[in-house]
Amino acid sequence: MGSLVTTVLVVSGLGALLALLLYLVAKKFKVVEDPRIDQVEKMLPGANCGGCGFAGCRGMSEALVARDDISSLYCPVGGGECMKQIASYLGKAAAEREPMVAVVRCAGSCENRPKTNRFDGASSCLVASSLYAGDTGCSFGCLGLGDCVAKCDFDALHINPATGLPEVDEEKCTACGACTKACPKHIIELRKKAPKERKIYVSCVNKDKGAVARKACKVACIGCGKCAKVCPFEAITVENNLAYIDYAKCKMCRKCVVECPTGAIVEFGFPPRKVAEVEPQTAKTE
Amino acid sequence: MMKTFPIGGIHPSDCKKYSKDSAIEQFPIPASVTIPLSQHIGAPAVATVAKGDKVLVGQVIATAGGFVSSNIHSSVSGTVTAVDDRPDAQGNMKPAITIAVEGDEWLEGIERDGAQKSLGSLTAEEIVAKVKEMGIVGMGGATFPTHVKLSIPNGKKAECLIINAVECEPYLTADYRVMLERGEDLLAGAQLLATAIGVDKIYIGIENNKPDAIKYLQALAKSQTNVRIVPLKMRYPQGGEKQLIAAVTGREVPSGGLPIDVGAVVQNVGTALAVYEAVVFNKPLIERVVTVTGSTLASPKNLLVRVGTPMSALIEYCGGMEGVGKVGAGGPMMGRAVSNIDAPVTKGTSGVLLIPTEDALRQTEGSCIRCAKCVEACPMGLEPYLLSTLTQRGDYEELEAHYIADCIECGCCTFSCPSYLPLLDWVRIGKAEVMKRMRERAAAKK
Predict the structure, then answer these.
(1) pTM listed for this prediction
(2) CA–CA min distance B49, chain A (Å)
(3) What is the ipTM of this complex?
(4) What structural domains and CATH numbers belong to chain B?
């Protein structure tokens, strides 16, 4: 009996002692964390994609709570709605940005851009681009090995087996920008999202001289500058034999699409044209 | 027991039989040459000629763009037709000078009779200056500017010169032919290099698959007491600088260190010959011996080719592209696949290798079975399977901790993998990224 009592006493004594120790340690090393961080994290989409520039949603919420001015912070996945909600919770001014979408600026399908050789190394655009210019005459275009597809956390990118090029699912794309960083050729760009999934852009990044570019690919931009001349909004610039449409200035009048001799400027989501000559129309953007 | 390096290595079939018995042949001067401005490691050279300029053979057409850079000389006489971007062997656009050939007029002062000359009494500085002026770079393939290697950094001391006559790459026989045909000049070049770095001991490392070269050089070197021919047991990558030092001297270059840290300077056979010609004949590096070989070729050859000649011309000369599935510049182990065969021969092109269609493609890649064959094969004692996985994961800190920067990219890992994993493809990516980070860190510290 005596030994039982001793055991109980010793064990409960130890328990009490250690509890006290734990209490003191917890008191001494207590990390005071703003409870709002947890709340903000809950409001964020929780995709942990890194599109905001932080490693994950936790990092973003810490920054949102800590900084007074949060206009430079933006979650592309949650978008404006999410940012507004968080801003009103924190009593700060929300950043407002236009919704964006990833766009693949290469139309060098097998048909347009004949293969000149075959790559046989590790199946990765990064590896291929470190070894050589590519399996076609174009050293700027898509390598088609799918680094962007592998990096997409939202299942929004897929290689189209018919063309060998990645295609963006606009419904799923959150414009986190992971694909733009994964592409070693810098083909993918985030552009302003227009209603009805309408898009006009130069689907080429080839900076070679016109003749060289055209020889390598039927739909290459040859830098002729016709589009820049016809654009009524000065949205198009031609640099290094390559046209670029500034999406902030473009009003989607589609004049350049008609003018482009190689078909490097592409349009998506528009109703079919009635006549060859398109009347200047200023499509409503927002 | 014949000497060799201590760890790793593989034993591929040497395949030198195709071209080893064909004597070096002067390749005819083409109608036009394209001379790239970046034929060496380091800053690209800066063009000093413009379109329309007349140039002579041996005239400087681009000057070094920094200390680690090299002069470039015209390999032909004629008119400059363009100074612009041209696709290199991998299809990337790189700045180059294109010259339309007219005749073969050499710059005055270059001696062309080729007669043996006494070396005279040149000082180290004079030799290094000459090497720099004549645009000599390492001709084994790495194309590191030779004058940089010969400029021993303060506080370091060279103890021996090692001439790399290993030619461990299968197929290549350019160095082998130089040893047999230009043995005396080669030894004279080695003596000049030894004077330049202020050492007395010269070792010439040759693998035992070239017994006649060993015998011939041994006979020649009898009168030169400071030269020792070191026969080495055949094993790839014995021609790697660090492996050769270990094989010949038994010393190990520390991780992240240079050969000079163990008192060694290594120079290739082709480089030694080029140095001899530069110092004695005033001849810049404008031509080199290129092995054009492969089992499909009618007549594989060792050709003395002017820099800037298109590779396609060499292939045509030796039998054409029939049955060829892949072209490589350099040997099969460390050479790079060529996607544009019209690209020019450069200072570093040791060979043009034609691989038949049936051997051109790699096998289908499987999964790692953890057999550790790559670990066993790695001559630097690294773990290639791990480095490859970590690279795919993007864990660069861990990669650095596993000494990825020590990789010499010899390809033993990929060669030995029974699952045909593209190990080196990945390791190279990881190494490039880690080296970039290390350089940035070093720059930030300054």
Answers:
(1) 0.87
(2) 23
(3) 0.88
(4) 123-281 (3.40.50.11540), 373-445 (no CATH)
